[in-house]
Amino acid sequence: MQERSKATDKYRTTASLGGADKSKPVSATVSLLNSLNEQQRVAATTESRQTLVRAGAGTGKTLTIVARCAHLIESGVQPQQIQALTFTRKSAAEIKSRVENLLGVQAAGLNASTFHSWCMTLIRGNEDTWGYKGWTVIDPEDQLTIFKIARGRCEPGLPPAASIMNCYSFARNAQQRFIQVAVDRLGLTRDQIEEFIVPVIRDYEEVKRLNRYIDYDDVLAIVGMQLQASDKLAEWIGKMYSHLLIDEMQDTNPLQWQILRPLVSRLSLYCVGDDAQSIYGFRGADFASIYNFQDIIPGSKIYKLTDNYRSTQGILDISNWLLRQSPLSYDKDLVAQRSEESTPALETFGAEQTAANRVIDLVEETVNEGEKLKDNLILVRASYIARAVEQVCLQREIPYRFYGGYKLLESAHIRDLLSALRIVANPLDQLAWLRYLMLFPKIGEVSAKRLMDEQIAHLRAHSDIDYSALPSPVADTLSDIRQHQNVVPEAITVAAEHLDPVLEKNYRNQNWDRRWPDFLHLKSLAHGHTSVAGFVEQYIIDPVFSTELTGEPSEDAVIISTIHSSKGMEANHVYLLHASPASFQRHEPLTATRSKKIAGYSMLR
């Protein structure tokens, strides 16, 4: 009881949450529109029902989307009927907050979310129609566990489970035949794919069905397939929304287009993107949709934003030149609106440590000249490339902040706690049962499997957990969470209080003092949630990274980021490490065109 009391004290802390300033005058919309350049203003106020805005880097893409939302609301469109779709939770929050800060209460009800979050909202908003009531969203680690089990039943010598999983995901997102994708990516013959790999996929899908699991790709596929088959569902969505605004249109893939096509005749589509910034090819993104936009959507209009406010002309000249080397016609040279001159410098090094020391030397020079550490952005193609720079920062005691790190819900101790919540949300969740049971002393794999099988059998017969068949601490934790499952912050607090002694012992040699405060962050994220399942799936679909846990850094710090995590970032000084074609093409199968795009994208931060 003594340990429980201490745990109660530390988990009864609640982090404060901010909110938008809703007191500003409505007339700010007119001022915003007047502040735009001609290209931005024409694009933001167009009367075209179906629109594509081709916006180069640094041309005010987000500003134009915000202005479009404000213009629609000022024109009489109800904010509840506007849905902005983005590729990151951060971008969605920025669009929503900027419109709310501009319009105040007039913008109340505006919707902004990622594609996956929006699709999950649709599914949860009409569960009986979609047919997935009570199903649990699983994260990539759970997916990989299922693939490993399925692959383990097959012949040795097959590609790793992760390769099979990624191949299957790409085929689904790109809407390509799995066997052909597998032949191209796994290095096996068609006969080998059909004999050994296809059964792995079938086993994976069967495990999902039996456990009522939905994976990341299912979220889009469920909506896409059912919209294709049901005019009523498309009409239902068309009545809820009159306008869809899509950010980063160049990163949409064929599976997302499967969702959009049935809606084109029922609502207005306003798409903003840059064919030169398509960096999500590994997810099946197809930037050709921008080139073929008017063929896909006849009667649509295309606008261009080419005035760049971020970079100097010297930087833009190199980026423009790089893109002109592509066989594709971009037909969109960016023009700098800044008067000062600067051109990129290329330096070559024989060792990573030498390059890292040189970069930090340059950072220190900017600080000595009066600038801040955060005015420096260091970009890397993959997180491991940043290790040398991190080491130099630590040696010189220079604070830094890394973007592209681990996701909060991927942390082992967070997954441990959430396993209990997942069982309450979906008692048929076998992966959650095994993880949860093995947290407790004297419960190994064999006894955990036995207890789980007994519970699953009881659930199928009686539709409830048999608490009497579980060890007391196991049952008490689940029972208490269940009583608070409709107030998720309290459910998290109860779970943390019960599991604190167990987890402290399990992580006694793994920085427990640094781990347990994450439960307070988890509790803050759960504010306002009334469903354990809804909370867990939201942060699986839209992950929170470790660097987001404490908001903006209170101290000045160098920013280090992977290229894919740098969307929306900009800085006075940008350093791109490993800026060689070999490095850019090493990490995934890349065409020369895509590697040039990623390099050009990096330059324009």
UniProtKB/TrEMBL annotation:
One of its GO terms (molecular function) is ATP binding. Its EC number is 5.6.2.4. It comes from Flaviflexus ciconiae. Pfam families: UvrD-helicase, UvrD_C. CDD domains: DEXQc_UvrD. GO terms for biological process: recombinational repair. It comes from the Bacteria. Transmembrane segments: none annotated. Residues 1-12 have a biased composition (Basic and acidic residues). Residues 313-568 form the UvrD-like helicase C-terminal domain. The keyword Metal-binding does not apply. This is DNA 3'-5' helicase. Belongs to the helicase family. UvrD subfamily. It catalyses: ATP + H2O = ADP + phosphate + H(+); Couples ATP hydrolysis with the unwinding of duplex DNA by translocating in the 3'-5' direction. ATP binds at residues 55-62. The keyword Cytoplasm does not apply. Residues 1-24 are annotated as: Disordered. PANTHER family: ATP-DEPENDENT DNA HELICASE SRS2, UVRD / RECB / PCRA DNA HELICASE FAMILY MEMBER. InterPro entries: DExx_box_DNA_helicase_dom_sf, DNA_helicase_UvrD-like_C, DNA_helicase_UvrD/REP, P-loop_NTPase, UvrD-like_ATP-bd. Gene3D superfamilies: 1.10.10.160, P-loop containing nucleotide triphosphate hydrolases (3.40.50.300), PCRA, domain 4 (1.10.486.10). Keywords: ATP-binding, DNA-binding, Helicase, Hydrolase, Isomerase, Nucleotide-binding. Residues 34-312 form the UvrD-like helicase ATP-binding domain. It is an enzyme of class 5 (isomerase).
